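Exercise 3.2. Students should predict the tertiary structure of the chain below and write it as C-alpha cells, then compare their answer with the key that follows.

Predict this chain's 3D structure.
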Amino acid sequence: MKKNLRYGNNPHQQEAEFTAPERSLDILSGTPSYINLLDILTGWQITRDLWIATGEIAAASMKHCVPVGVALPGKLDAFTQDLLGIDSGSATLSAYLRARSSDWGAAYGDLAVVYGAVDAELAKILSRLVSDGIAATHFSADALDILKKKKGGQYLIVQLHRAYEPPRREIREVMGVELTQNRNNYIPELTDFEFVAGEQALVTQLVNELKLAAITMKYTVSNNIVLVSDGRTLAITAGQQSRVLSTKLACEKYIACQKFQHADVRAVLKQSQGKLTDRVLASAEAAQTTDLFVPPETPLVLGSDGYIPFRDNIEIAANHGVNVIFEPKGAMRGAEIEKAVADHGMTLVRTGFRAFYH
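Answer key:
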C-alpha cells in the first residue's frame, strides 16, 4: 500500500509519501503527516509490546514521536474525573485517559494509540479533546460515527491489524547511508527483573510497573527516564545527553503532574469555565503557584534506559519519593549505586537488557 502524506517533517517538505505492507494498517479517515505516522508507529510498538507482556489493553498519548504518557486500564485520577465529569469508564477509556493525564498540557494535540477496541465511550471523550488522531486495533461502528465528524470529517483514524508481524530486519537511511539491524524483539518477563537490594517482595508486586517502564524506555529516545506508578507513567523524559539532567527533569515533571491532584488546584478547576483547554490552562497556572502536591498511593518506580553512572541520580530520586530504582546492569560504579539505594531505604532492581533507542 502506497499513499501520500500531507507533508514531511515540515510543510515545505512536499512530495511526502509512505509505503506499508498489506494488512498492516488502514487509514479510515483523514490524511496523516510524516510525524503523525511516526507517532502511530511508535505508539503501536509500545502498546503492542505491553499487550504481549501483560495481556492487558494498553494506550499511549504520543507527541513528536515520544510518548507523553503510557498506561494500562485502571482508576482515573481525581483531576481527570473532575475535568471530564466522569468517575470511571471502559478499560479502553481508562487506559487512554491515564496515559494522557501524565501531562495534560503536553498532550494537547496528541496522537492517541490504543491496542484494544475503541468504543463510543472513548470516542465521545475524544470528540471533546484537542487531538490530531487515533490509531487502534478495532473501532465499534458507533465510535467511528462519532470520530468521523471530528475536525470537519478530517480527524485521522487508523486501524492497526493485530495479526501483522513486523520484519525481523530494520532499515534506516540517512544522507544516502543505509543502516540495518535486527529488530529489538525483547519482551520483558518477571525472570528478567533481578532483585539487588531493598524489599524483594516489590519485584513481584510491581511486575507490571517494571514491564511498563521497560517497554516505554525501549521506544523513547535516549537518554530517557520513566517514572511509573499503578500501571501508568507519571513522567517521561527523552533525548537528554546527561543522565542526571534526565533524572532531574523526570522528577520535576512528576511533581508538576501530581500538583494537579491537590485540592487547591482542583478547586480552581471546578470554578473555571470555558472549553476543556481553558480549564486545563487555569489549573496549570494554579499549580505553578503552589509547592503542594499529592504523591501516588502506590510505590513509585524510576526506570533508566541505561545504567545509572553516579549516585547523584539516586539522591534526586530519593528526594522526590521514589521507592524503586530499575536499571540495566553494567555500571562501573555499580556498588556505589547499590550503597546509595540502601542508604535511602529504596529497592534496586536490575536487568540484563539495555534499552537505548535512536
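Discussion points: The chain has a mean pLDDT of 96. The longest strand covers residues 110-118.
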